Amino acid sequence: MVLPSKMPQLADLDLLLSVASCGSVGKAAQAHSLSQPAASTRISAMERRLGLRLLERSPTGSKLTEEGEMLAKYARNVMQAARELLEFGSRARSSEAKRIRVAGTPAIAEHLIPEWLNRSGFSFGEARVEVQTGGIDELRQLILAGDVDLAFIDGWGQAGGKGWWEQDHGDVVTRYICDDQLAVVVGATHPWAVRSTTLTVSELAAAPLVLRERGSGLREFTDGLLKAAGAPQAYVELPSTGAIKQAIATSQRVTVLNVSTVRAELDDGRLHLVAVDREMPFKPIYAAWSGQRGLPEYAANLVEAAASKVTSKPALESIHQPRQINSRTRTRPQNSLAVDAHEAIA
Description:
The strands form two sheets. Strands 3, 4, 5, 6, 7, 8, 9, 10 and 11 form a nine-stranded mixed beta sheet that branches. Strands 1-2 form a two-stranded antiparallel sheet. It is built from twelve helices and eleven strands. The longest helix is centred in the N-terminal third of the chain and has 32 residues. It folds into two domains: about 90 residues, Winged helix-like DNA-binding domain superfamily/Winged helix DNA-binding domain (Arc Repressor Mutant, subunit A); about 250 residues, 3-Layer(aba) Sandwich (D-Maltodextrin-Binding Protein, domain 2).
């Protein structure tokens, strides 16, 4: 609908109502911080647009004509609707300020984001938190489209691709959060759970394994680790970390997983890490958001919570001694508040 040109302005209707309540244009002008000539000009212009005589002017003041009274009746309804519209906008802004839309690659969304939300002191009765998951390219598009406020992305990227820190992000701002390392994991009843010597890659390759599906970043690194010892002799391939953990918990099978995804099971003794005779690869985790839109307050708080260190636990490196440093090393960014993922979710 296109409004006709003679449609009165809200401010002019409001001024007319003030004239009706104050009894004079001068007092109404003062209430609206206008000069009396300016107020008179606005009332006269509205009369001309509508083709109506709205005021009876006299030396003692002004009062509404019969037509003015009728217009004032409609004007009160219009002004009430305008106030309700403003209140709705205020409520909507308040609700939006208490909403955070966050996304993460699958392991981060399942295992780390819930812990970071708890650490940040989120009150789920006060804020709406919407978490979704996807691949790196999908999350980047969600950020650029404004469909999420914040995403947490692991640095491995897609199998065979560049690390996240090596890619052109466009209008995406990133902040380093922590490192998530790989580790050999067994169930509590496996003989390696109490093994005192380091495991060789040849022993790992010869063991009955549980592996992620081909094409995943975790499978890529597991295959790379086992490459020197040849293809594994026997393995089960499963499509999720949860399924892998269930498969090894009470069996004699072995797997390689991100430390962040098994933290709870390590704490209660259901799973155990096994020391390996070489450095295990790690993936840096980044927070990412739109540089143009910036971070809402709740999202910024979540980033700080993710990057903060709360309780120190024994470093993963102490489990993997001795080790031979390989070529896959990277210097952690300087002046970072980030810590390893197994400490970050402590």
